[in-house]
DNA sequence: GTCTATACGGGGATAGAC
DNA sequence: GTCTATCCCCGTATAGAC
């Protein structure tokens, strides 16, 4: 029974995926070398070719693993029994939580877009469209039917605007720090949570009916 | 495709910058080779080393040229004699116009963020912060003082939320196409302009006072 | 399964002719 | 200023020992 040393519970394969996720995210596909990944994972670089056909296959498997995680996490905020406005607020918070706990995700997604026009991630994005994005659009439609949200916004566009705030903040984080007047690279942790709260509020305000008769609890 | 043989007007140097802008934006720094740039520019690749010290210097000069263009363009929407809400709407439209006419810009900015945490673009982003971003924040503050905008949003955060919509749409364009249910890569041109209009409306709705009636806000 | 050693090609950069 | 030719490193991927 081939058992790795007690120190690493994770299989070598998982270690390789972990290391490649980090390196591909921070350096990009082309700049990351097989040898670097092996070094980071603590295995010999030739071993990568035992588990994965080539560099590209390794990349795809890594990406798929990560996005699956995000989808299951994001759906958790949509599948709850709460009114649409609360669910939307919860979704934005949850999006922020995930993105800032997994900074690799926005980086990798963005690289996909710019490097290949999303070609390598098409299947995954389609999955995303059918689950999380569709759920968010439905939520907005539901709020519109309930007169909680204004009806003169296209739900899909409103969904993109909602998502975009936290997504952009995460992607452009280094620039955001500078824009907000901080020293390079060091954005206080409170700013991040503050912005998540702001983003939820901003989206809800934009969606609120022009005549603000509708119920706005939030008496905290 | 290579440019036509050196038309007298554009210097070889400019041709090289043009080609590198396109290639760095679409392929990234590491994946773009000196030889490709030379080919695209219609000059011999060794000539790049006559005009630029090395690949990195070429990259920086290219980036600086592009961002200067954007700043001067963006400021045009802020320096007009109109009420804040109209100026904000104009700004978003102009941002969209520039970004979709210069698709290289969002790609390069995003690469900067992910590749080097913005390190190579720090000076330029600082410039951006001091001009365009500051202008946008001022605009929002002015609207707040004039009671046109709600006062319980941090101007800097509201500015980021405003910018983020179009920026994210441009960055994630391939994914956005899929999310909206189109065939891969082919987002109708009308969708782009429609979204720009939506983004301006969304931001103005979010900034609109909750209800001008005398309801006093709780201090939070 | 995991390692050592190496082939093979490609890319950045330089020398030097014109 | 612009080109031809070339050096040399480094990265992917494979062969094969253990």
Kindly list the characteristics that best describe this protein:
homodimer; mainly alpha; 10 helices; disordered C terminus
Question: Which two protein chains have the largest interface (Cβ within 8 Å of the partner's Cβ), and how many residues from each?
Answer: A-B, 62 and 63 residues
Oligomer: homodimer
* Terminus-to-terminus distance of chain A: 58 Å
Average pLDDT number of chain A: 89
Strand residues, percent of chain A: under 5%
Counting DSSP E segments of at least 2 residues, the number of strands of chain A comes to: 0
H/E order of the elements of chain A?
HHHHHHHHHH
Number of helices of chain A: 10
Shape descriptor of chain A: globular
Structural class of chain A: mainly alpha
Largest sheet of chain A: none
Helix content of chain A: 55-70%
Low-confidence runs of chain A: 1-7, 212-220
Radius of gyration of chain A: 20 Å
